[in-house]
């Protein structure tokens, strides 16, 4: 069993997803009616969107990649052996107890901080002019 699988997905490869630009900013838009992404309202009314994924080992990948990532299939799709497109890949890491823990150094010490999980408020999407490109 692996200690860690570091995986990444291409959001633009999700079903119903596309990248759009508006006012010099780029947005990933996912049409939930065409997607496997599930939309929920949390307690308190907060919106959430989840995408269930399958991560499979595959020794035929290149660049030290050991796993491929696909959107999860339904039980019926698995029984029919339906294969969905690959949306990402990953690499497995196994750590030995005897391996020394390397000292953590910043990758880019002068890089600006990134606010993870930032969702642009509606006001940042524009003032209502030329909104024909983006459906919201």
Q: Could you give a short description of this structure?
A:
Helices cover 4% and strands 32% of the residues.
Mean pLDDT comes to 81
Low-confidence regions: none
Alpha-carbon distance between the two ends? 44 Å
Question: How many helical elements?
Answer: 1
Strand numbers in spatial order across the main sheet: 1-8-7-6
Computed CA radius of gyration, to the nearest angstrom:
19 Å
Apparent shape: extended
Computed structural class: mainly beta
| Strand/helix succession | EEEEEEEHE
User: What characterizes the major β-sheet?
Assistant: 4 strands, antiparallel
Helix amount: under 10%
DSSP E strands, number: 8
Strand content: 25-35%
